Amino acid sequence: MDCALLEELQAVLPGRVSTSSSDLDRYSTDEGPVVSPASPEAVVRARSVADVQNLLRWATRHTVPVVSRGAGSGLSGGAHATPGSVILSLEDMNRIVAVNPDDETAVVEPGVINADLNQAVAEHGLMYAPDPASHRWSTIGGNVATNAGGLRCAKYGVTRDSVLALEVVLADGTLVSTGHAPFKGVAGYDLTSLMTGSEGTLGVIVGITVRLRYLPRSVHTLAAFFGDFPKAAAGVLAIGRARVQPAILELLDGRTLEALDRAHGSNLRRRGGSLLLTQTDGYGAATEAEMITAALTEAGAVVSEENSAEAEHLVELRRDSRGASAEDLYRVGEDVAVPKSQLVSYVTALGAMAEKHGVQLKVIAHAGDGNLHPTFWVERSQGDLGRSRLEEALDESVRSALELGGTITGEHGVGQHKRRWLAWEQSEEVLDLQSGIKRLFDPLGILNPGKAIC
Amino acid sequence: MDCALLEELQAVLPGRVSTSSSDLDRYSTDEGPVVSPASPEAVVRARSVADVQNLLRWATRHTVPVVSRGAGSGLSGGAHATPGSVILSLEDMNRIVAVNPDDETAVVEPGVINADLNQAVAEHGLMYAPDPASHRWSTIGGNVATNAGGLRCAKYGVTRDSVLALEVVLADGTLVSTGHAPFKGVAGYDLTSLMTGSEGTLGVIVGITVRLRYLPRSVHTLAAFFGDFPKAAAGVLAIGRARVQPAILELLDGRTLEALDRAHGSNLRRRGGSLLLTQTDGYGAATEAEMITAALTEAGAVVSEENSAEAEHLVELRRDSRGASAEDLYRVGEDVAVPKSQLVSYVTALGAMAEKHGVQLKVIAHAGDGNLHPTFWVERSQGDLGRSRLEEALDESVRSALELGGTITGEHGVGQHKRRWLAWEQSEEVLDLQSGIKRLFDPLGILNPGKAIC
């Protein structure tokens, strides 16, 4: 980037701009697979709405791409730097602006950590329901940008279902408000939902009004161990047929249990070939837990109710079950979703795919939503051939989910990594409409180009 | 309209086109206030997606406005005929295409009556949650087009929260699919939410995949009578502070109780000055009803649990409480929403407004969502002066809701009637973005022009 440009940026945002190689490196990627490595030209850590507006006015003047990010915990590469880009980090805009106990809402800046908001509202008997596995470090802004899911969305819905209103800085620096402070509102088109999940390609979210839910007084956690993974998947349907709504309904295969045992010294795998972890909450939680126990026992599980410490531990293990990245592996985790009735077929097919392509596989799933996270890997020592088998397995897993009526991404977003599959799911006409919306909001194409849409 | 045009329309849609004066009259309005009366040129009753496509291709060729409608039960004039328009009625596209008990979803054509879907899925232990007061005659397509609310959305959310995927015919006749069959999906921009509530201005919805919820086995209904309306509104906050989530939480003022008593021979008004009607459901319903009883008794109410017949009767009375139109009155019902904490201030202010402007007032509210339906009226004999006082009261009621952080419409939509207030709520930049989206989807401006946006 031209030195004069950078100097102008530093002049409009004094003290906010870094070009240190450690910052450029640190902010060049999120947690997603890197499709085309790139280093940003600069990193801006905004502290105010005005900072964001100043950056975007500068970017518009000079047609410079801006990649916004929160904690960088995204798994699809939505926050990867692209050539010539400036990274806009919103992590310092982390004030909880208001908690309104009677309205049951909160207003936050985008950099507020999900778990911090939950901690702040708990004293009012409230919770912010969406809880991606990254909830202890991911930001609400990032959660909104990806329309993040989580464990509790089986009962409480995804991020979009908890977002009432947004403050958004548009590509040219204009600040707009979308949505409504009350729970309901239908004035004009639903720009709030349009922004939610748009991965920073339509505007920069700088303020968020969220709806809070009631913190449940009673929680029951069940661990149901099955002989194998397809049987556990069938257990999900058994709960559904009992017409009981758990708050959390997570499925872990045998390989995942083994990995957890290795990492944490637990003995999950010895208890069964697959675990269905269920949590009910609210005033009916005890009865619901009984109903679920009956349904799963009938379906062949060994079911035990966990005491609260053990239950908390199990749920935390689940949140961590993606595992740390390993240097000696090529590994990619997926995020497909299928209609619930297809869960058993799909998990059976996944096993066959791994075998066919000679890759390793473990699977966890937000089973209540039909959302699966298969992770495929090969030893790095297997080189390009192994890598190519891995890609073939990934492609087949996505195609198979689509054939069963599913989607390529349940909650992680398209980012950079999943764009190759988007046209498998969506028609040319739909892709064109999306491009048209992108052009309307961002005529110069400076907002996170090359992400989210085709 | 040119005879040749009409003949061409009849030729592309044989047997579907009516120009009889009774049809033109019947289809010229919905249930909303008529801003500028107009008669359509023709009425098309589509029976298939192909019919809709053929109509829109013809309309695009000749730049003819098309106003889509379901049952015409809308309350904002969204389905009013506009000059030179053709009405597209979707009421004959009323097949329930699929009920998927394991997926907990259904696929319907737009003309399916809300209550008919509920009847069809009940045998599977499922329900379609959104239940506008018109649920016995309004269509799912119309519910989606307005993002309809209802009684149960206090717990289960509005229409948007139950819509997974749509089939939409675009202005030029192209058929597109939006959304996803699984519960979760974040591929591309959220066109499904964009369509939901767009009142037929962006496309014609011809297929809908909805998420179903579990039919609750246990339901408890409480009637809480308060001395006056503000005290009952305070009761809503008392329930909230107890952090108990009712499925239904409806507020009826004394004038509404009197009107119901006159119409149905009930004795509600004698029981108190205002009624807070609460329903809890699910496995915790009994405990929740106890908690609510305690909170409302503490707040000064006389609370009784209703047996199921009486409860059903009360809820039905509430659904009917808008009242039939009366020839001797100018009457307009509103649909504002305010943050819950503002309910007491707002209902108090409403009473003062009615007095100040010399108009009559009754109020019902989906109080759990802060969504109020004040109805103002004057005797028709008061002529233009009365009418103008009525309009002033309406304007003030809307302005006051906005000043308290509210919205001009919680669930009825902007239609034709509420456009005069839209710019009070939304900034020029937001209105411009909405116009841009409209132009993108409908470059000729033939889809329900003059509705929903400014």
Automatic annotation (TrEMBL), chains A, B:
GO MF annotations in UniProt: FAD binding; oxidoreductase activity
Q: Does the keyword Acyltransferase apply?
A: no
Report the Pfam families cross-referenced here: FAD-oxidase_C, FAD_binding_4
Q: What is this protein called?
A: FAD-binding protein
Q: Which UniProt keywords apply?
A: FAD, Flavoprotein, Oxidoreductase
Q: What ranges does the record give for the region Disordered, renumbered to this chain?
A: 17-39
Q: Which PROSITE patterns does the UniProt entry name for this protein?
A: FAD_PCMH
Tell me which cofactor or cofactors this protein depends on.
FAD
Residues of the FAD-binding PCMH-type domain = 36-215
- Gene3D superfamilies assigned to the protein according to its UniProt record, in alphabetical order: 3.30.465.10, 3.30.70.2740, Vanillyl-alcohol Oxidase, Chain A, domain 4 (1.10.45.10)
Organism per entry: Arthrobacter echini
PANTHER family in the record, alphabetically? GLYCOLATE OXIDASE SUBUNIT GLCD
